[in-house]
Amino acid sequence: xxxxxxxxxxxEREARQVAEAAREQDWRKPSFAKELFLGRFRLDLxxxxxxxxxxxxLRGEExxxxxxxxxxxKIDSARIEREARxxxxxxxxxxxxxxxxxxxxxxxxxxxxTQVYYNKALALVGSASPAIGALLSAHQSIGVPQPLKIFGTxxxxxxxxxxxxxTDITAFLLTEPDVGSDPARLATTAVPDGDHYVLDxxxxxxxxxxxxxxxxxxxxxxxxxxxxxGITAFVVEADSEGVTVENRNxxxxxRGLENGVTRFHQVRVPAANRIGPEGAGLKIALTTLNTxxxxxxxxxxxxxxxxxxxxxxxxxxxxxWGKPVAHHEAxxxxxxxxxxxxxxxxxxxxxxxxxxxEDRNDIRIEAALAKLYGSEMAWLMADELVxxxxxxxxxxxxxxxxxxxxxxxxxxxxxxxxxxRIFEGSTEIMHLLIAREAVDAHLKVAGDLxxxxxxxxxxxxxxxxxxxxxxxxxxxxxxxxxxxxxxYAEFHPPGHADLSGHLRYVxxxxxxxxxxxxxxxxxxQGKMETKQGFLGRVVDIGAELFAMSAxxxxxxxxxxxxxxxxxxxxxxxxxxxxxxxxxxxxxxxLWTNTDELDRKVVRGVLSxxxxxxxxxxxxxxxxxxxxxxxxxxxxxxxxVHRPIH
Length: 645
What we know:
By secondary structure, the protein is an alpha+beta fold.
């Protein structure tokens, strides 16, 4: 057995190459969002709105009814917040209900719910307790079930999925104390030893790790004879010898989250537990997240619905200056924002989820946009709710109850939602990830032109390819249906708000966005990847255009299938008008911003130029390293692992 390899030291370029190698390279299916970033508004890919088969809807609704009854009678959210722990009996009840197996096929003992109904279930249970929503999501969206569903062998599925569906909680372990969104520096090793691998390393922020029975662990296999090496995924029994949960972490929100630090010391894992080939770990992780990310906006939708309910009830009951506060314009605008945005978030979620179920489209960008947009907008809605509630919004539910008022946990939902802008890819990382996919077509035809490692011959060939592509593509960005007054007329039925104008705006906006992206690539070329402010705004514009499209399509669906068509059209209209204001501001900020000045200030801050500005305060932080050392070796701490059986 060879000694564990030291922590990799990699350059920025090498880190980018690792991330690039892990992403899915080809587009074998159409993508609405990809086309949107290329200036092509493919409404036909999302309209008419896809619908689930009746049998899937029936099975989903039946489970939602059982889950609602459980949430109303068996989940004590205040107790979870007070004790910072989900009671064991609650988790056992969820197991008996089948909630661990919502997404697992019925042949393995699961419920076999579609993505649409899995998300509806998460929104429901997450509204009762965000900590429980996080537990179920981490278990099924990124834990053992999802990667095995896509990449596992039949033997692995037979061995592990029945356990995941009924009894065993799972966790996903990628992050390390000094490795976040830069997996090229992953230090945990898996050294081949006969028909086993030996794991050594430390993993941080292991959601569910404290109570998990099974783990998906990402570790680096050293390259050697017969082993291609690279970051690789393994299923690990949490009670294996050498596995120690060294700490249960505590956070500003999600106080019931069973998240910890897990150490592996000489942990022997059968080679049969390796998921996919060596070196495929990051690709497995990213592919798993393509649909796994949809669980997070599901709980954001649930939060939006709850915020709307509380805002409506409170602002109708609370009076100021002779009338309910809802009728004061400053408060009313906040309520309108919450209502319209909740409608749009649900539209984005349901559309993306139904497309995931149908599997006719590549939804990697749609799912990422849903995660990005949902997490940002849900946080804003919760913040507005706290403002609407005033001092009571800042007061805890327990304190409100103690003095005889309704125990509304507004400040708690603000704390609980904050992590969503960091979980499963921070907003900043999501901007870069989506931007990379958005410019993929450009890099495929012109990437060699700006690659310093390419030869003159390669650059000449790339120039010829790029010339042909842009000669065909650029003229199509000049005019389109968005400039024709009667386009999308079916979205202006009699007696309803006019949504056709918003779709024409989306079509024009998509072409403008594509032109802006092309101009930026021409201007900055190889430095484009460093313009993170610009790329973030491009992605945010795309997110707004996608949300507007989804809102309009959902409104038309509700008009033709349910009783709330007119109200849905009104909400979609208001949302689109609010969204268009944000889009116009983002377009303006593409070229008028302080990005360059900001970089200068940052250099000054880091060099100590402005330390005088920090005078006059006391830093209450404790002593200790900024990043804890994660030296491989045996654990020196008690094992706080507590499986729930």
